[in-house]
Amino acid sequence: MFTGLVESLGQIVAVLPEPPGVRLVVETPLLASGAVLGESICISGCCLSVVRIDGPRLEFQLGPETLSRTTLGGLSAGSGVNLERSMRPTDRLGGHLVTGHVDGQGKLASRNQMGDWVDCRFSAPPPLVAQMAPKGSVAIDGVSLTVVAVGADSFSVALIPHTLACTTLGGLQPGDTVNLETDLIFKYVARWLEARP
Fold first, then answer.
1. 134 touches 149 (CB < 8 A)
2. Which pLDDT tens digit goes with each residue over 77-104?
3. pLDDT tens-digit series, residues 144-169
4. Any residues with CB less than 8 A from the CB of 168 and at least 6 apart, and which?
5. Domain range spanning residue 171?
6. What's the rounded Cα separation, in Å, for the pair 183 and 179?
């Protein structure tokens, strides 16, 4: 489990073919210094396991499912990624409960500068948008955010200067694709209501 509070920005060093998937090499001195093999790290919203540690670099294996359902398949050397280690039971939950299991992808439809803040509207599949509510939570590329407004096939969030400066969301431009994870509690409540006789 994660909180959606990004600890560090990492940079993709290499994407190495490893049929049927790939190996992702990420430069992250901060996280690599204390990493252990097998631990879970959220990379731009996707929970992956560390398979090799090489100084300031961590390596991860991505299978066909991850490549097809997330934006990670489109990464290349030089790409930036949001990184967060899994939370400990004693950690403060400053964001919201994030599993690192991407529900789908969205696309930045518009970006509106409002002083130092940026208002972003994302288009997304209607079934995902149906799991969102104003003032509820959503994880975009692993970043915990509060939903401002929800439409039939889009939703909006407001990005504060800190988020713009310390995550990859600050560099998003209209048309860019992002990983989305809707609120875990919302999903369980919706599933419970569906299953009721």
1. yes
2. 999 999 999 999 898 888 999 999 999 9
3. 999 999 999 999 999 999 999 999 99
4. 9, 44, 80, 81, 82, 141
5. 104-192
6. 13
